[in-house]
Amino acid sequence: MTFTHLLTQWQSGLTDGSIVPYLGPGVLADVTSTLDSRTMPASSEQLILAMNNGSPMAPKLMYEFPRAAMNVELKRGRAAVTRFLDTTYGETRWTRAAVHEWLATLHPPYVIDINRDTQLLDSYGGIPHLLILGCARIGGTDYRFKLYVSDGSSYREIPPEQADATLPVLFKPMGAPRPQPSYIASDADYVDYITELMGGFAVPAFIKTRRRGKRYLLLGMRLNRDSERMVLSDLLHDAATEPAGWALIADPNDKERRFCKRIGIELIEEEVTALIGEALLS
């Protein structure tokens, strides 16, 4: 099947909800600050450098953002990490990503976005929807998520049993600064979140029902890091088979090839920019 035919299939599936977009850091590669044109930090390395005022950290900390965030949390407190993410994604003004502009024309009824920015929320402004933000290490609840409903203009937090499961759902497992800051960032966050995700406490019951038999389109995702792979594997539980979905990864390495084969994801060796280019021509 040609890339053009695949795009037609994907756009149809994204619109009717049979295909779920799964957005990684690469979808934000074209986003820049409206003030000084610097690139939005989204990848692990970009986030580490931004958190450390542009300077590299020790090699063992540069390996992955959660490790670097854990180091900052231990030295300066959890609030330091939260302030950095709030400033980066909640206060700085950014240009729109081409992928988000494209998805805003389709408005998929279910989207998973592991980035911590707010572009996905902006895409659904004016449209009633549900928002799920991941959270970790909180007491007094068995859940590892915060659930909000939007009437199209503002959010309010609701318990899962009050959710209207017919509304579009935006699932941001790593959190966001709005409506209230909530993040999965440090190693300790990931350990807690993934443990509860595996136990079923990080996904609302209505999502467990909705996701049965879905296929997934992975955009802007590299699959080299164990933490992101573990989150992905659990969020894709009960997916369709043959294939479970597709991943756009130019020049995938052997580790990525093996992982995709194991979970039933078909590799499409293209950049996400190729998808947008085709979409604009269709």
UniProtKB/TrEMBL annotation:
It holds the Pfam family SIR2_2. This is SIR2 family protein. It comes from Candidatus Accumulibacter contiguus.
